[in-house]
């Protein structure tokens, strides 16, 4: 009798479920080719979103209050940019149309983490996050006169006393306690900082399980010393823009990173898909400019005017300040960095008052258009892996919430990029970096459509990506 009763109850429940109305989702992305690099899913599916999360991935049509028809388009996790200096509205508006849904400033960072996040509340176009930066801490401790991201005086070239090094350690510990995602370094911009000083800062990062993201110096020898210092400090190491740092020695750079990884060391790296870099012309990177041959100056393009520089105009620009684009890497070097299985994609982008580098607005669309579609140098899934789940995994130990980003799966954050694989491409140039990418009609952040038919909407659902902050007692 009990068995019969149980059977009848199960049949009744099944019948009730069959008769129940299908749920209505807040947003449905219908008919798209859903690619999730983590699980390997690559099939036409319908994605149902409730609130800020993915609630359903179905082979059958779903009902939504709002529906986006993604026929002939790819539905991918929103791109995660680990290296984005442009942390303001102008840059956010360009990068999101390049498919970026989370942008993090992890190289230079900030010396005041709490204030940095506070200034961006309650929301932005995309999700945002920051490191606590050794560069900024050093500028504070040594009293550098620069008001920009990088030192122009003693903060870069000066030697630190024991008291100043201890002050830097205190700034880093405070920033980590305030939820900094990582610890940022730029030893190329702080030639006065010894490797012993940098290693001490690595040890502070290791205390909190934070990765160190570093623009390193001195080419292959500098890479080896940086890897060795991170190993001694037991710090997780991320080498930023391996294409810029490796330059003509890119193959050796990648080989040395792979050798460290093969030995079990936690080392990762990234690249952007352009042959020119950009930085502040007043930085210590150019302190030896007076020794250059005349032919070298023409590689440098002043961002504010677009002009190529001479010895005379370079000297003038050093005095007035600003940013400069540095041309010189070959296409072979750029391609080698992008296709390497070791690299993630990160833009190193920055736009100010309509001027900057095209990587802010075109890094991800260029990889998808040029290196995937046109050259077939990468598979689509591999390219998306470099843009989504791999950057998320780099940060998960420190920021567990990243386990819900960079994926298309039920329960994941509804950060999605919808693009046309047949037309996606970058369009910005070194003379005009503000031209948005083509072929990315829809971008969703936290379940809200921030790019609709290629145009920005008015919503600002992006929130701070941050490590846990202890409650105030």
Detailed description of the structure:
The protein is α/β, with parallel strands linked by helices. The protein is 34% helix and 23% strand. Helix 8 packs parallel to helix 10 (250-262). The radius of gyration is 24 Å and the shape is globular. The model is unreliable at 12-17 (pLDDT under 50).
Q: Roughly what percent helix?
A: 25-40%
Total DSSP helices: 16
Question: What is the level-2 CATH architecture name of the domain at 78-276 and 327-400?
Answer: Alpha-Beta Barrel
Give the name of the CATH superfamily of the domain at 78-276 and 327-400.
Answer: Metal-dependent hydrolases
Mind telling me the CATH class of the domain at 78-276 and 327-400?
Answer: Alpha Beta
Determine the CATH topology of the domain at 78-276 and 327-400: TIM Barrel
The parts where pLDDT drops under 50 for at least 5 residues are 12-17
Taking all residues together, what is the mean pLDDT?
Answer: 95
Shape designation: globular
**Percent of sequence in beta strands:** 15-25%
Q: How many angstroms separate the termini? A: 60 Å
């Amino acid at each position: 009798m009990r068995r019969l009763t149980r059977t009848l109850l199960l049949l009744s429940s099944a019948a009730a479920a069959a008769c129940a109305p299908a749920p209505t989702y807040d947003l449905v992305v219908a008919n798209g080719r859903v690619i999730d690099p983590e699980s390997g899913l690559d099939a036409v599916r319908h994605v149902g979103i409730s609130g800020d999360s993915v609630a359903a991935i179905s082979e059958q049509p779903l009902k939504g209050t709002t529906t986006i028809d993604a026929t002939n388009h790819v539905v991918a996790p929103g791109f995660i940019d680990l290296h984005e200096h442009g942390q303001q509205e102008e840059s956010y508006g360009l990068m999101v149309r390049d498919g970026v849904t989370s942008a993090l400033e992890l190289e230079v960072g900030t010396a005041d983490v709490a204030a940095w996040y506070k200034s961006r509340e309650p929301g932005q176009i995309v999700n945002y996050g920051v490191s606590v930066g050794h560069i900024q801490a050093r500028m504070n401790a040594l009293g550098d006169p620069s008001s920009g991201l990088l030192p122009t005086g003693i903060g870069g070239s000066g030697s630190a006393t024991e008291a100043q090094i201890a002050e830097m350690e205190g700034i880093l510990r405070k920033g980590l306690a305030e939820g900094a995602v990582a610890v940022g370094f730029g030893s190329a911009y702080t030639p006065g900082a010894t490797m012993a000083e940098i290693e001490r800062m690595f040890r502070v990062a290791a205390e909190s399980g934070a990765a160190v993201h570093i623009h390193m110096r001195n080419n292959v020898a500098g890479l080896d010393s940086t890897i060795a210092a991170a190993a001694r400090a037991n710090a997780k190491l991320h080498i930023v823009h391996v294409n810029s740092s490796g330059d003509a020695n890119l193959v050796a750079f990648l080989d040395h990173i792979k050798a460290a990884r093969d030995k079990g060391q936690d080392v990762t790296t990234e690249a952007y898909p352009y042959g020119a870099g950009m930085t502040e012309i007043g930085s210590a990177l150019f302190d030896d400019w007076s020794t250059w041959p005349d032919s070298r100056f023409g590689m440098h393009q002043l961002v504010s005017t677009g002009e190529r520089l001479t010895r005379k105009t370079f000297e003038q620009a050093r005095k007035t300040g600003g940013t400069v684009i540095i041309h010189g890497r070959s296409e072979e070097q750029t391609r080698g960095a992008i296709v390497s299985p070791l690299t993630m994609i990160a833009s190193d982008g920055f736009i100010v008052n309509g001027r900057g580098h095209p990587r802010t607005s075109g890094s991800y669309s260029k990889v998808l258009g040029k290196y995937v579609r046109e050259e077939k140098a990468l598979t689509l899934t591999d390219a998306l892996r470099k843009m989504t789940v791999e950057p998320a995994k780099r940060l998960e130990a420190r920021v567990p919430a990243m386990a819900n980003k960079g994926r298309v799966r039920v329960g994941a954050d509804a950060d999605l990029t919808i693009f046309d694989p047949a037309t996606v491409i970058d369009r910005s140039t070194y003379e005009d970096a503000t031209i948005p990418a083509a072929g990315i009609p829809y971008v969703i952040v936290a379940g809200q459509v921030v790019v609709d038919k290629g145009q920005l909407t008015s919503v600002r659902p992006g929130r701070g990506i941050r490590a846990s902050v202890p409650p105030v007692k």
